[in-house]
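Suppose a colleague, Dr. K., hands you the sequence of a protein chain of 404 amino acids and asks what its three-dimensional shape might be. Before reaching for any lab equipment, you can write down a predicted structure in token form. Begin with the sequence itself:
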Amino acid sequence: MTLLRLYCSLHEPPPACRWALVNEGGDTVVGEGELSTLPRHVRRVQVVLPASQVLFVRVRLPPSARTPGGQALAFAVEDQTAGDPALNQVRWLGKAGDQDVLAVFDQAGFQAWRDALAAAGLPACQWQAETLLLPFEPDRWHLRWNGMEGFVRTGEFEGAATDCGSTSSPPVALGLMLEQARAGAAAPSMIVLHPTVPEAMPDLVLWSRELGVAIEPAAAGESGDWTQAGADAGVALGQERQGWQVLSRLGTRLRPAAWVLGAALAVNALMLLGEWALMSNEQHRLGLQLETTFRSAFPDAVAVADPALQMRRQLAQARHAAGQADPGDFTALIGPVGDALEGLPAGSLRALSHQAGRLDIELVGVDAIGLEGIEQRLRQSGLVVGVQPPETAGAIARITVQAP
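The predicted structure, expressed as tokens, is then:
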């Protein structure tokens, strides 16, 4: 796997930066230049932020707030950063005991580099803090030192830049961090020192005496330099997936298919509109035909709103005037209804009413299976049936019955 690691200062605008090409099983190639001149065809890209530009803060967050990023996290560190939350980019890294560890860095610089990386067409970029590229051991701290200043990794998700020191005097900030760790019963048993060059190695005896902790040089081959860290070292501050570029390239390839699909959808929409127009015209024609038939049969009608319903009512009146029964009469409906309700427990029939050729029935204590059986028997008698099941067990069920 080939990893391209970029060292980007948030205080210096893009596009120039230092870089390292980490080849698995091979030598690391380092260089410096603009983003447009970077090596291509890499599998992974990491953006390393200088140790002094990333602040690690401990807070207590509710579980719902433990997301990798988000503007809401900036307000969780507002008291400790003493600045406008909108100026900070804050990322949740993990838990340290009963507290949450957040990484805080400059929002404007982060946005500038993110835009520049996107414009350069790089693949997904993983953001790292230089501090967390140092080795991690639960009971040891690792310090990178250039002879005057440096930075130290104090935990899985924590670390800090130090102030100035000398060959005989360790940085004051390192001593303060040790005192704070001792107060929390989390002091290291040893500090492993990684000098940038052999000349940067301090007097370890004097440092150990003043700090009150053993200090030993790192083993041969452990430089602690960001260019030499393993591909899987560190803790990601976030992943920038520049998916819009993938979608852009995919869109270019699929553009002909999109035109074909769009044309097919347009033709289908036109066909649906045409079919709807034909059906609407047919409905209008049938309505006019029904109205004409009704007026020819009953020329005295003043207004025609529902020809079919008015026709049924006029026929019922004509049958009654001739002394004949109508299929919608109570006596014509009650016979098949009585047969369908036969076998129900006593008291199941709550109400029965007849109006305008319709019989309304209210039942209680009838379950869904019983209602289904009643509906089937009524439909077998040639009636038009509507069923409203009870809203709750034991509530009223309503059935409407009409002649066809």
